[in-house]
Amino acid sequence: MKLLGWSTLGKATGFFTVVTVVFAAVLHYLENSDPVTFISMAEDMKTLEENFRQQNKSCFILGASGETGKLLIRELLERNIFSKITLIGRRQLTFEDKAYENLVQEVVDFEKLDESAAAFQGHDVAYCCMGTTKAKAGTEGFIRVDHDYVMKAAELTKAGGCSQFHLVSTKGADKNSGFLYLKVKGQVEEEIEALGFDRFSIYRPAVLLVDRQESRPGEWLAQKVLGGFAALFPTAMTVPIQAVVKSMVSNTLLQPELKKEILENKAIYNLGNGAGK
What we know:
The protein is an alpha/beta fold. The protein contains eight helices and nine strands. It has a seven-stranded parallel sheet, sandwiched between helices. It has a two-stranded parallel sheet with strand order 7-8. The longest helix has 30 residues, at 2-31.
Protein backbone atom coordinates (compact mmCIF):
# COMPACT_ATOMS: atom_id res chain seq x y z
CA MET A 1 0.00 0.00 0.00
CA LYS A 2 2.87 2.37 0.78
CA LEU A 3 4.46 1.70 -2.59
CA LEU A 4 1.15 2.34 -4.32
CA GLY A 5 0.75 5.61 -2.42
CA TRP A 6 4.21 6.84 -3.32
CA SER A 7 3.69 5.82 -6.94
CA THR A 8 0.45 7.80 -7.15
CA LEU A 9 2.06 10.81 -5.52
CA GLY A 10 4.97 10.63 -7.93
CA LYS A 11 2.67 10.53 -10.93
CA ALA A 12 0.65 13.47 -9.61
CA THR A 13 3.82 15.47 -8.99
CA GLY A 14 5.12 14.66 -12.46
CA PHE A 15 1.83 15.67 -14.06
CA PHE A 16 1.77 18.94 -12.14
CA THR A 17 5.35 19.65 -13.19
CA VAL A 18 4.54 19.05 -16.85
CA VAL A 19 1.45 21.27 -16.69
CA THR A 20 3.45 24.05 -14.99
CA VAL A 21 6.20 23.89 -17.61
CA VAL A 22 3.70 23.95 -20.48
CA PHE A 23 1.80 26.86 -18.92
CA ALA A 24 5.05 28.77 -18.40
CA ALA A 25 6.02 28.13 -22.02
CA VAL A 26 2.66 29.48 -23.19
CA LEU A 27 3.08 32.59 -21.07
CA HIS A 28 6.60 33.06 -22.42
CA TYR A 29 5.25 32.88 -25.97
CA LEU A 30 2.46 35.36 -25.22
CA GLU A 31 4.94 37.64 -23.48
CA ASN A 32 6.99 37.93 -26.66
CA SER A 33 4.37 37.56 -29.41
CA ASP A 34 2.64 40.93 -29.57
CA PRO A 35 4.45 43.45 -31.77
CA VAL A 36 4.85 46.95 -30.36
CA THR A 37 3.64 49.23 -33.13
CA PHE A 38 3.53 52.68 -31.53
CA ILE A 39 6.19 55.37 -31.77
CA SER A 40 9.44 55.05 -29.85
CA MET A 41 9.21 55.43 -26.08
CA ALA A 42 12.11 57.87 -26.38
CA GLU A 43 9.57 60.59 -27.16
CA ASP A 44 9.60 63.34 -24.56
CA MET A 45 6.12 63.06 -23.08
CA LYS A 46 6.39 66.36 -21.24
CA THR A 47 7.10 68.18 -24.49
CA LEU A 48 4.27 66.36 -26.23
CA GLU A 49 1.90 67.25 -23.40
CA GLU A 50 2.82 70.92 -23.59
CA ASN A 51 2.40 71.02 -27.37
CA PHE A 52 -0.96 69.28 -27.13
CA ARG A 53 -2.10 71.54 -24.27
CA GLN A 54 -1.52 74.63 -26.40
CA GLN A 55 -3.99 73.34 -29.00
CA ASN A 56 -6.86 73.96 -26.55
CA LYS A 57 -8.67 70.69 -27.27
CA SER A 58 -11.67 69.13 -25.54
CA CYS A 59 -12.66 65.54 -24.90
CA PHE A 60 -15.45 63.43 -23.48
CA ILE A 61 -15.55 60.10 -21.67
CA LEU A 62 -18.18 57.37 -21.94
CA GLY A 63 -18.20 54.94 -19.03
CA ALA A 64 -16.74 57.37 -16.51
CA SER A 65 -18.39 55.58 -13.58
CA GLY A 66 -16.50 52.32 -14.19
CA GLU A 67 -13.07 51.46 -12.83
CA THR A 68 -11.24 52.31 -16.07
CA GLY A 69 -13.26 55.47 -16.59
CA LYS A 70 -12.65 56.76 -13.07
CA LEU A 71 -8.91 56.29 -13.37
CA LEU A 72 -8.93 57.87 -16.83
CA ILE A 73 -10.56 61.00 -15.43
CA ARG A 74 -7.87 61.25 -12.76
CA GLU A 75 -5.07 60.71 -15.28
CA LEU A 76 -6.44 63.39 -17.62
CA LEU A 77 -6.80 65.87 -14.78
CA GLU A 78 -3.29 65.21 -13.48
CA ARG A 79 -1.69 65.61 -16.90
CA ASN A 80 -3.92 68.57 -17.78
CA ILE A 81 -3.80 68.22 -21.57
CA PHE A 82 -7.41 69.20 -22.31
CA SER A 83 -9.07 72.57 -21.80
CA LYS A 84 -12.43 70.88 -21.25
CA ILE A 85 -13.41 67.38 -20.11
CA THR A 86 -17.01 66.19 -20.41
CA LEU A 87 -18.50 63.08 -18.86
CA ILE A 88 -21.43 61.57 -20.74
CA GLY A 89 -23.43 59.04 -18.75
CA ARG A 90 -26.79 57.92 -17.47
CA ARG A 91 -26.39 59.66 -14.10
CA GLN A 92 -24.64 62.56 -12.43
CA LEU A 93 -21.43 61.56 -10.67
CA THR A 94 -20.35 63.05 -7.36
CA PHE A 95 -16.74 64.02 -6.64
CA GLU A 96 -15.34 65.38 -3.39
CA ASP A 97 -11.95 66.53 -4.67
CA LYS A 98 -11.86 70.13 -5.93
CA ALA A 99 -9.74 68.98 -8.87
CA TYR A 100 -12.96 67.61 -10.38
CA GLU A 101 -15.03 70.78 -10.04
CA ASN A 102 -14.51 71.95 -13.63
CA LEU A 103 -15.70 68.71 -15.20
CA VAL A 104 -18.79 69.07 -17.38
CA GLN A 105 -21.42 66.36 -17.00
CA GLU A 106 -24.07 65.45 -19.56
CA VAL A 107 -26.78 63.06 -18.33
CA VAL A 108 -28.34 61.06 -21.18
CA ASP A 109 -30.84 58.26 -21.74
CA PHE A 110 -29.01 55.63 -23.76
CA GLU A 111 -32.34 54.22 -24.93
CA LYS A 112 -33.12 57.61 -26.52
CA LEU A 113 -29.63 58.78 -27.37
CA ASP A 114 -30.71 60.73 -30.46
CA GLU A 115 -32.42 63.19 -28.12
CA SER A 116 -29.02 63.98 -26.61
CA ALA A 117 -27.10 64.44 -29.87
CA ALA A 118 -25.95 67.89 -28.72
CA ALA A 119 -23.92 66.29 -25.91
CA PHE A 120 -21.68 64.67 -28.52
CA GLN A 121 -20.98 67.85 -30.47
CA GLY A 122 -17.92 70.09 -30.26
CA HIS A 123 -15.36 67.57 -28.98
CA ASP A 124 -11.95 66.76 -30.41
CA VAL A 125 -11.27 63.42 -28.70
CA ALA A 126 -13.62 60.68 -27.47
CA TYR A 127 -12.78 57.96 -24.95
CA CYS A 128 -15.11 54.98 -24.65
CA CYS A 129 -14.67 52.81 -21.55
CA MET A 130 -18.30 51.71 -21.42
CA GLY A 131 -19.22 48.09 -20.96
CA THR A 132 -20.91 45.47 -18.82
CA THR A 133 -20.89 41.67 -18.53
CA LYS A 134 -23.28 38.91 -19.52
CA ALA A 135 -23.35 37.77 -15.88
CA LYS A 136 -24.53 41.19 -14.74
CA ALA A 137 -26.87 42.23 -17.56
CA GLY A 138 -27.81 38.97 -19.28
CA THR A 139 -27.17 38.24 -22.95
CA GLU A 140 -29.55 40.88 -24.31
CA GLY A 141 -28.41 43.49 -21.81
CA PHE A 142 -24.76 42.86 -22.59
CA ILE A 143 -25.31 43.25 -26.34
CA ARG A 144 -27.41 46.37 -25.80
CA VAL A 145 -24.71 48.09 -23.72
CA ASP A 146 -21.50 46.86 -25.34
CA HIS A 147 -22.77 47.01 -28.91
CA ASP A 148 -25.89 49.10 -29.34
CA TYR A 149 -25.10 51.91 -26.89
CA VAL A 150 -21.45 52.11 -27.94
CA MET A 151 -22.29 52.14 -31.65
CA LYS A 152 -24.99 54.79 -31.33
CA ALA A 153 -22.66 56.95 -29.27
CA ALA A 154 -19.91 56.50 -31.87
CA GLU A 155 -22.27 57.51 -34.68
CA LEU A 156 -23.32 60.67 -32.82
CA THR A 157 -19.67 61.38 -32.02
CA LYS A 158 -18.74 61.20 -35.68
CA ALA A 159 -21.71 63.35 -36.67
CA GLY A 160 -20.71 65.86 -34.00
CA GLY A 161 -17.36 66.49 -35.68
CA CYS A 162 -15.03 64.61 -33.33
CA SER A 163 -11.85 63.44 -35.05
CA GLN A 164 -10.43 60.90 -32.57
CA PHE A 165 -12.17 57.88 -31.04
CA HIS A 166 -10.36 55.77 -28.44
CA LEU A 167 -12.06 52.46 -27.62
CA VAL A 168 -11.30 50.09 -24.75
CA SER A 169 -11.91 46.62 -26.20
CA THR A 170 -10.40 43.32 -25.04
CA LYS A 171 -7.62 40.87 -25.84
CA GLY A 172 -8.87 38.34 -28.39
CA ALA A 173 -11.68 40.51 -29.81
CA ASP A 174 -12.85 38.86 -33.03
CA LYS A 175 -16.14 39.27 -34.88
CA ASN A 176 -15.94 35.58 -35.89
CA SER A 177 -15.32 34.28 -32.37
CA GLY A 178 -17.52 31.57 -30.93
CA PHE A 179 -17.52 33.41 -27.61
CA LEU A 180 -20.18 36.11 -27.33
CA TYR A 181 -18.01 38.58 -25.42
CA LEU A 182 -15.14 38.44 -27.91
CA LYS A 183 -17.51 38.40 -30.88
CA VAL A 184 -19.39 41.54 -29.81
CA LYS A 185 -16.16 43.38 -29.08
CA GLY A 186 -14.83 42.44 -32.52
CA GLN A 187 -18.04 43.55 -34.23
CA VAL A 188 -17.92 46.93 -32.51
CA GLU A 189 -14.31 47.46 -33.54
CA GLU A 190 -15.13 46.82 -37.19
CA GLU A 191 -18.30 48.91 -37.23
CA ILE A 192 -16.67 51.93 -35.59
CA GLU A 193 -13.81 51.72 -38.08
CA ALA A 194 -16.38 51.92 -40.88
CA LEU A 195 -17.56 55.31 -39.54
CA GLY A 196 -14.33 56.84 -40.82
CA PHE A 197 -12.85 58.73 -37.88
CA ASP A 198 -9.62 60.58 -38.68
CA ARG A 199 -8.08 58.46 -35.95
CA PHE A 200 -9.45 55.29 -34.37
CA SER A 201 -7.42 53.75 -31.55
CA ILE A 202 -8.33 50.34 -30.12
CA TYR A 203 -6.95 49.10 -26.79
CA ARG A 204 -7.05 45.35 -26.19
CA PRO A 205 -6.01 44.71 -22.59
CA ALA A 206 -5.85 41.19 -21.17
CA VAL A 207 -7.08 40.45 -17.62
CA LEU A 208 -7.12 43.74 -15.73
CA LEU A 209 -5.31 43.83 -12.41
CA VAL A 210 -7.73 45.99 -10.44
CA ASP A 211 -9.59 46.01 -7.13
CA ARG A 212 -13.16 46.41 -8.31
CA GLN A 213 -16.00 47.65 -6.15
CA GLU A 214 -18.33 45.75 -8.46
CA SER A 215 -18.36 41.98 -8.02
CA ARG A 216 -17.01 40.06 -11.04
CA PRO A 217 -16.25 36.52 -9.78
CA GLY A 218 -14.79 35.32 -13.09
CA GLU A 219 -12.38 38.22 -13.34
CA TRP A 220 -11.50 37.92 -9.65
CA LEU A 221 -10.60 34.25 -10.12
CA ALA A 222 -8.53 35.01 -13.22
CA GLN A 223 -6.63 37.69 -11.31
CA LYS A 224 -5.87 35.28 -8.49
CA VAL A 225 -4.67 32.54 -10.83
CA LEU A 226 -2.66 34.75 -13.18
CA GLY A 227 -1.60 37.47 -10.78
CA GLY A 228 1.18 35.33 -9.38
CA PHE A 229 2.76 35.02 -12.82
CA ALA A 230 2.64 38.77 -13.47
CA ALA A 231 6.08 39.37 -11.95
CA LEU A 232 7.70 36.94 -14.40
CA PHE A 233 5.41 37.51 -17.38
CA PRO A 234 3.96 41.01 -16.90
CA THR A 235 2.39 41.33 -20.36
CA ALA A 236 1.37 37.77 -21.23
CA MET A 237 -2.09 37.52 -19.68
CA THR A 238 -2.55 40.52 -17.36
CA VAL A 239 -2.10 44.27 -17.24
CA PRO A 240 -2.51 46.80 -14.38
CA ILE A 241 -5.49 49.04 -15.00
CA GLN A 242 -3.27 52.06 -14.33
CA ALA A 243 -1.15 51.11 -17.34
CA VAL A 244 -4.27 51.04 -19.53
CA VAL A 245 -5.36 54.59 -18.73
CA LYS A 246 -1.82 55.95 -18.90
CA SER A 247 -1.34 54.35 -22.31
CA MET A 248 -4.61 55.88 -23.56
CA VAL A 249 -3.58 59.39 -22.54
CA SER A 250 0.00 59.05 -23.80
CA ASN A 251 -1.18 57.56 -27.07
CA THR A 252 -3.49 60.52 -27.60
CA LEU A 253 -0.39 62.72 -27.82
CA LEU A 254 1.27 60.63 -30.52
CA GLN A 255 0.79 60.81 -34.27
CA PRO A 256 0.21 57.34 -35.77
CA GLU A 257 0.87 56.64 -39.43
CA LEU A 258 -2.47 54.90 -39.96
CA LYS A 259 -6.03 56.04 -39.24
CA LYS A 260 -6.71 52.81 -37.32
CA GLU A 261 -4.34 51.37 -34.74
CA ILE A 262 -4.63 48.44 -32.37
CA LEU A 263 -2.65 48.38 -29.14
CA GLU A 264 -2.42 44.83 -27.87
CA ASN A 265 -1.67 44.02 -24.25
CA LYS A 266 2.12 44.30 -24.48
CA ALA A 267 1.95 47.66 -26.25
CA ILE A 268 -0.49 48.93 -23.62
CA TYR A 269 1.78 47.80 -20.81
CA ASN A 270 4.94 49.29 -22.30
CA LEU A 271 3.41 52.62 -23.26
CA GLY A 272 1.55 52.88 -19.95
CA ASN A 273 4.64 52.20 -17.91
CA GLY A 274 6.66 54.68 -19.93
CA ALA A 275 4.20 57.53 -19.37
CA GLY A 276 5.62 60.56 -17.67
CA LYS A 277 9.14 59.11 -17.37
